[in-house]
Amino acid sequence: MSGVQIGRRSLLAGAGMLALAACAPARSGENATPETVTTGYGPVRGVRRDTGTAFLGIPYAQPPVGELRFAAPVPPAPWRDVRDCTAYGPTAQRKQLGAVTAIPEPSIPGDGVLNLNVFTPDPSRAAKLPVLVWIHGGGFVAGSAASPWYDGAAFNRDGVVVVSLGYRLGIEGFLSVEGAPDNRAVLDWIAGLRWVRDNIAEFGGDPDRVTIAGQSAGGGAVWALMATPSAKGLFRAGISASGALSQPNDRAAGAEVARLFTEKTGVPATVAALRDLDGNQLQALQDKLGEPGASGPMLALAPFADGSLIPESSADALKSGAAMDIPLLLGFTRDEFNAVSEDQPVTDATLPAAFAALGLNPADADAFRAAYPGDTAAQLVGQATSDTLLRAPSYRVAESRAARGLPTWLYEFTWTSTAPTYDGTSFHCLDIPFAFDLLRTQGVTAVAGDNPPQPLADALHKSWVSFITATDPGPTWPRYTLDKRDTMIWSETPHVRSDPFAAQRDLWLR
Questions:
Q1: Separation between Cα atoms, residue 169 and residue 92, nearest integer Å
Q2: For 247, how many CA atoms within 13 A lie in the half-sphere containing its CB?
Q3: Percentage of the chain exceeding pLDDT 90
Q4: Which end of the chain is more exposed for a tag (fewer CB within 10 A), N or C?
Q5: Which of 27-41, 418-432, 438-452, 467-481 has the lowest mean pLDDT?
Q6: What is the pLDDT of residues 94-103, one digit of tens each?
Q7: What is the domain extent for residue 311?
């Protein structure tokens, strides 16, 4: 998101909320014996592990530098010698979204940022296993596919191939630049999915059984791809966890962000002005765009309806039903960004002004009081941010799809952390190590507490495996329909509730 601040903490949300440094790839249980697979561009060598083999940093497009800096992705040049793919490749992220983040997402220098990682239990064409393609979050300006939280070990154990994608971020990925195609990062996602279609069988995956998934901005990527005609046929189902589903923005927003960029930086949004700047210079310009006081959408550098690649905004796609009619599993955490408002001296009297400072409608303060009785004014600020950015847009998608009878499953993750910083909250990103069944991975206990419940991870992960395998999360989780509005509640004891958001519905569907 673009630099909205509440007290000491930032709402720059895609990569997570608080504290962890970059880290090395998880290497537990690796075997020194290498594994080699031949892709359509050349052979790659991975590293064998207890659960399968990891192939890291495989290029799916040429490095976006020089003439390719703001161009559509170009297929990689073929190679003959075996390419060593035993360490994560470069990331587009130059610095993390905030000074501290919940998900450890390292920044790795280098030009070849259009790379992907494949985790497979069985690298043979005969396997024909379902495939999960993971698109990382980071507010569309940060994030990294090299996080240990995105390791595919548990999915491999359960017979699923995992692919995690790197893609261009921020200015290079999403700014409308004169002389360049719009939505370049969306083109990156599509290029990665085409690579999967053409090559994943060599790694044991079935190209006809691909599910795309992501969290936060990555969940928004899933929705944007569902609204992109040229992505049709590249995947058969989607998972959006705490997705930024108000994106794609409309076309006017894309133009306004480009205008605002030039106004705040003094640099024209043109290929000629930007192509030869180095990474640090582009990062500095991007930081200026996100400074307090900026207008435009809260997620300014994000997918937008360009009228070509993405025909419609998210709001228009919901009205027209243009998004792909494929199975979709989506949901959010209970608290998302609520914790960021804890320290704020907000009172009932100043609540409308606090809403206005966040770019929200001050008149909605009373509606939020009614929807969340018992919350303090400070808590309502956090809740309004969570609802506006993530919870309400996801709910609107679920309602719209249910009205058309499309296969949809909705959830709320309510289990709360016991870690000191997060104690008692179900914050943004907390559900990811449960979904990936990686509770013992580096950084998890620091944000979840010392003993996050393994049975909850077992149940949540199993539902994802079932959805990826059979496009249905299982018999204990009913579809979301307008007559019952059944929603899975991921708590210490997972259960289904009927219409749990009745108090918020009028507010969320405005």
A1: 6
A2: 30
A3: 80
A4: C
A5: 27-41
A6: 988 765 568 9
A7: 5-508
pLDDT at 292: 58
Strand (E) or helix (H) holding 461: helix 454-470
The pTM of this model reads: 0.92
pLDDT in tens, 274-308: 999 999 999 999 999 877 555 556 678 999 999 99
On the 0-12 / 13-18 / 19+ scale of CB atoms within 10 A, 29 is: exposed
Q: How many CB atoms lie within 10 A of CB 345?
A: 9
Catalytic residue among 313, 428, 461, 463: 428
Q: DSSP letter string over 21-43? A: ---PPP-TTEEEEEEEEE-SS-E
Name the catalytic one among 176, 216, 313, 417. Answer: 216
- Determine the pLDDT at residue 149: 98
Separation between Cα atoms, residue 234 and residue 412, nearest integer Å: 28
Residue 233 amino acid letter: G
| Per-residue pLDDT, 293 | 53
Q: Is 305:248 a contact under the CB 8 Å cutoff?
A: yes
Mean pLDDT along residues 205-234 = 97
Which of 348, 356, 346, 394 has its CA nearest to residue 373?
348
Rounded distance between C-alpha atoms, residue 10 and residue 408, angstroms: 32
Cβ 37 vs Cβ 203: under 8 Å: yes
216 is catalytic: yes
Quote the Cα angle for 440-453-459, to 5°: 100
CA nearest 303: which of 460, 170, 478, 407?
170
333 touches 426 (CB < 8 A): yes
Confidence of residue 500 (pLDDT cuts 50, 70, 90): very high
**Parallel, antiparallel or unpaired: strands 495-498 and 486-490:** antiparallel
- 314 and 248 in contact (C-beta within 8 Å)? yes
Residue 17 pLDDT exceeds 60: no
Model confidence band, residue 452 (pLDDT cutoffs 50, 70, 90): very high
Tokens of 9: 């903490």
Length of the chain: 510
Number of domains the chain is built from: 1
- Among the listed residues 202, 336, 399, 412, the single catalytic one is 336
Amino acid at 156: N
User: Residue 18 pLDDT more than 50?
Assistant: no
For residue 384, the domain's CATH number is 3.40.50.1820
DSSP string, 353-421: HHHHHTTS-GGGHHHHHHHSTT--HHHHHHHHHHIIIIIHHHHHHHHHHHHTT--EEEEEE-----STT
Angle formed by the axes of helices 217-226 and 184-199, nearest 10°: 80
